[in-house]
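If you are new to this repository, start here. Below is one unmodified record pulled from the training split, so you can see the exact layout before writing a loader.
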Amino acid sequence: MTLESVRSWLAANARDLPLIEVADSTATVDTAAKALGVESGRIAKTLAVRAGDHLFLLVTRGNARLDNRKCKDELGARPRMLGPDETLDLTGHPVGGVCPFGLKNPLPVYLDVSLKAFDVVYPAGGSLNTSVKVQTERLFELVADRWVDLCRLSEQTGDV
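And here is the target side for that same chain:
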């Protein structure tokens, strides 16, 4: 699955979006930003989250953190990040390559409003050295169920 499922999904749904493969790791926000030559906020990290019985993917800017209070207010439960094995089993992508494309199982995908600060963002591409360059609004049109406000910038306190 992983990279090949993303490649297939892009070919079927967004042929114009470039899948960027680099020699260096893109598994963390910092390594992805360095490898792609962009600021960390433009890295669109995808989090696999459970809030009560609600399981979803949250795509947020790289330098934002999931906010417990906002999540509880919006979804009625405190958020819990899925572990690496559960994330891989559910999405088909390893942690560090999780993205909203080519998923093994259908999941709701929410985009955090923090992404709106950027016209173009870079979500992972299903592996530890791939990314996809996409306009933020186009990302929403392609994969998202809704915009949410579940994060805060990482320099603020109270983050997960």
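Two things worth knowing about this chain: The chain is about 30% helix and 30% strand. The CA atoms of residues 20 and 116 lie 22 Å apart.
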